[in-house]
Amino acid sequence: MVLLGAAGWGFSVGVARQDLMLLILGGLGLLLGVAATLSALTAAAWVAWRLHRRPAGAAVVFECGAVGRTDFVAGAPWLVPFVALTWGWERPLAQVRLTPGRGGLAEAVTPARRGEHEAVVRRVEVEDCFGLVRVAFPSTERRPVRINPAVGALRNIHVVRGLSGGDLLTHPEGDPAGDRVDMRRYADGDPIRFVLWKVFARSRKLVVRAPELALTPARQAIAYLVAGPGDGPAAGAARLVVEEGALGEDWCLGADGCVEQASDRHAAMGVILRSADAGQGDQGAGLAAFLKSQGQGRLHRVVVFVPPRPGPWLDRVVQAVQERPGLRPEFVIGADGLRRPEGRWARAWRRPEPEDRSAAQADRAELAEVMRRLGATGGEVSLADRRTGQVFPASTLDLRKVG
Q1: Which of 14, 68, 117, 285 has its CA 20 to 30 A from that of 312?
Q2: CATH topology of domain 7-148
Q3: Prediction pTM value
Q4: What are phi and psi of 18, to 5 degrees?
């Protein structure tokens, strides 16, 4: 518009003053502006018509933070020269890199947030080669898209594993105690010779050898995924234990923002993905109802996956656990390491990271607050670092060495 205005003013002044220089420059500017506008509008109309006629695409599966490709290919019309075509994803949120392909430009997509979507909304831009005119419009493609949370380096880590009391006795009237091959916490009056000093050196916990009881793998476990700021690593850890069957044979999974519960892998993945849509008012609010739905009796095993940063979810989770006396859940905090302290100038020049990735990093004060509040409930707290693939028990965690 500025070019056309300036060219029109120069052309009119050149005609009025009979200035040949202004007349030529104004005329060339008007010609260039009109040609750029017509070429961009024509190319945009042609691209929009072709995209409208495009059939629904095949379903695709991505992983957060990983580059994936689709069969979507588009290009500018060769009959309209000197135009460039670009596009990006508006929903679901993703970074798009365009590469030359057969028949036009192909897209390489890096999703930023887990979820399930029935369509892809792109923002298409057509621009002339001089950068004078740009035409942008949305384009919706019907295509099922599934974006799984990334597990990162946690692929070979068994985040959740345990045993519970069983009934494997050799005789109904037999004594379930055997050799001292089991372990339990140290209590007043225990002989000091039964203390496992090697365990104490690693974990700083006093445990003693106890008579072996009849033990079997836990057959009933429930897990819950809490949504909140930076919950991507927690969702990845939940996905890992579901896919590897670390919860045992009889289990149940719930998540914020989902009324339904899952007891098989396919349904559990749907619950994990839909938890990404939980609003701020739903974060941590569903845990109390989830625990209540499991019955008023003794819960066998409870695993809660939580974000690394405090938020409204923290008070709700703590209250839900405190409302059930005797409940000792296992809290797994998922994180992508710790955010390193930066100076003012470093923050000003640092390239901004994707929102989901930066939110998954917690500073030491935030992580310490989450661990302190969760540990006060009496549950076991551990940190699963998705970046390094290590799991740190809260009792042995040194925040100065993490991240």
Answers
A1: 117
A2: Immunoglobulin-like (2.60.40)
A3: 0.73
A4: 60, 40
